[in-house]
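Sequence only, no structure available. Ideas?
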Amino acid sequence: METAIDIIDTKRDDLDLIQPHNEKVTDDYKPHNGKKISKLFISQDDSYVISYSVEDESIQGWLVNVEGNWQQLLDNNVYFKVGQLYNKVKFYKKSFLSYDYDSENNRIVKHNFIDLSDKKGQNFQLKHVDKLFTYERWIGFTSNGDLIITSLDEKLKDYKIYLYSINSKNATLLEYSQMYKIKFHKSLNEHNNINCFIQYQKLFLFNNGHLVQWELSETTTVTTFEKPEMQYNLFLEKLKYIKINKNKTLLAACGEVDEINVIYIYSMETGLCISRYG
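Reply:
I predicted one. Tokens follow.
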């Protein structure tokens, strides 16, 4: 999950923003034209930061030197005028999604999808996205930055995974490039407490105590979902959320057992339960 940090009154020096990674002269350069930084968005792997200025209506990219005292290096290739951002943001590598979310109807109602790898910062609209029944935790990215949105509509019994890929530099309206229909085994046809999570380029689907894991690689195709990377038998009636570590070796699952909140820790290498808390 990307982290958004609201900046109340931050000066440029507070961020330790020193020099561009492409070694351009920046003695006179001021990020966001010297306007105040309003928010910082930190990538999941902590290697990249996007700053946003409300006054300048712009976003600016920063490379983070994790091994060098977390120094931020200005990315001169990523500075774009974007207008006003929507309330929610998700980004990975050079894909940046800003959107407004209707929590009552579980829909994305407004959005902008920006290609940060393009020097113009091309802005896309995603076709059909406003019709998808989804939650914020069901939205993520493959390892190469393609957008993944899972739509699980229990009322209509309609379960699908949509992939949006920036494969056209001329179009501004992106159709989903691939769509995968989820079919549950007949033993799970009651569809009890279905849930989904996307973390660290992995997709997790929960149904009736069964958690399935897939790797969202840059070669994600229909065959990816035919053979799960790992499966877990959870001792949970209802799964509220999961968390995995950066090394992708441990998975924590939080949910309910007899209306009591518990946390189980699983090995992502074996799928076996290691410990329980609660």
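The chain has three domains: 1-85, 89-182, 185-278.
Hope that gets you unstuck.
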